[in-house]
Amino acid sequence: MDPQIFSRVDEYFHAQLIESDPVLEAAVRQSETAGLPPIQVSPTQGKMLHIFARMIGAKSILEVGTLGGYSSIWLGRALPSDGKLITLELDPAHAKVATENLKRAGLAERATVILGSALDSLQGLVTGEQGPFDLVFIDADKKSIPAYYEFAIKLTHPRSLIVIDNVVRDGQVIEADTDDPDVQGVRTFLADLKSDPRVTVTAIQTVGSKGYDGFAMALVN
Ligand code: SAH
Ligand code: DHB
Ligand code: MG
Q: Which of 83, 148, 171, 196 has its CA 20 to 30 A from that of 103?
């Protein structure tokens, strides 16, 4: 099958299902102008994250990997006016663009970008007794997914949802012998997960404007 069809269907769904949105469009444009890599979730995926957050009535959301704040806006908009979003970003240039985009989205009060290595920031959240968060979206470097997942467990409560992006990577996830640390990060995360009593987990493959990839979802027991 022509992979272009996946993009074209995604564009069609976008056109049919998502109203023109100057704030989100500006967020993508500003990210592009600042030279950020165009790896944010797609509009249909962003709206899926938004629906997940609404489904569980999330009042507190933690995101690992901010980029220009595109997924942060989708998630932040699911929050009530007294809700909180914390999003973690290593790259100061990304954090700066995200902070501006979140401000333009009217989310400055609810959203905080924490600059630094996510592992350090997550340890800071644990030490500072922040949380628990109702939803955690893990979308930074993939080699550290196992560590991010363990922090997510520490920072959540029963019925919290943990969503992990990019668990398929064009199917590379099944390459057991790969020396790609990102793929091994996903594989280590998935190992023994079915018998992890702390969560109920699945993973779903996706196609669309971001190619062939997928999400894992863990509901905290
Ligand atoms: N969630 C965003 C996309 C994130 S892309 C969206 O969908 O809109 C991944 C981001 O993780 C990049 O901005 C990258 O700089 C950041 N990142 C990579 N390694 C990191 C680390 N160790 N700690 C924190 N952020 C990291
Ligand atoms: C990459 C990272 C992502 O989070 C993503 O959704 C797609 C691609 C990357 O690092 O290439
Ligand atoms: Mg991603």
A: 148
What is the chain's pLDDT, residue by residue, as a tens digit (221 residues)? 788 999 999 999 999 999 999 999 999 999 999 999 999 999 999 999 999 999 999 999 999 999 999 999 999 999 999 999 999 999 999 999 999 999 999 999 999 999 999 999 999 999 999 999 999 999 999 999 999 999 999 999 999 999 999 999 999 999 999 999 999 999 999 999 999 999 999 999 999 999 999 999 999 99
* Distance from Cα 195 to the centre of ligand 1, integer Å: 29
End-to-end CA distance of the chain: 39
| pTM higher than 0.85 | yes
**Residues lining ligand 2, Cβ inside 6 A:** 39, 139, 165-166
147 CA to middle of ligand 1, Å?
15
Ligand 2 centre distance from Cα of residue 81 (Å): 30
